[in-house]
């Protein structure tokens, strides 16, 4: 099995656990004289099986990520950490640029001479340029990660 397939299975198992959790919660109590919509005990057992499978997948994915070398990016785990931090950096820069540009403020500016003028404390164009460069870096790292996901076999 390729790493990408295991990642898809992990996502499906995570969704399945959430669905089972919701069904358990809705079937855990019922009105006297009525029958519950579903057997909560059986749903809990099914959730336990899915969670066991999920744990095994996560262990194998993590083990694989830690051993796959990605050249200058280090291991696949290192590349994932780099991508996550690049995304956070991008988020911070775009939020700062948006705030400095006045995004979300009144669209019509001052109406009276006595109203205060708002000035930008940050260089918006420079921040947007840095954010664009980070977005490019994110795409490049993400492409290398995706390539590895489809090339690498999942470890046992």
Keywords:
156 residues; mainly alpha; 2 domains
What is the topology?
Layout: H1 3-27, H2 40-67, H3 76-101, H4 124-151
Account of the 3D structure:
- Helix 1 packs antiparallel against helix 2 and helix 3 runs antiparallel to helix 4 (124-151).
- The N and C termini lie close together (10 Å).
- It is built from four helices and no strands.
- The longest helix is centred in the middle third of the chain and has 28 residues, at 40-67.
- It folds into two domains: 1-67; 69-156.
- The chain is mainly α.
Total helix count?
4
Computed structural class: mainly alpha
The share of residues in extended strands comes to: under 5%
Largest sheet: none
Kindly provide the radius of gyration, computed on alpha-carbon positions and rounded to a whole number of angstroms: 25 Å
The helicity comes to 55-70%
Count of all domains: 2
Shape: flat
Distance N to C terminus? 10 Å
The chain-level mean pLDDT equals 93
SSE ordering: HHHH
Topology, number of strands:
0
Low-confidence blocks of residues: none
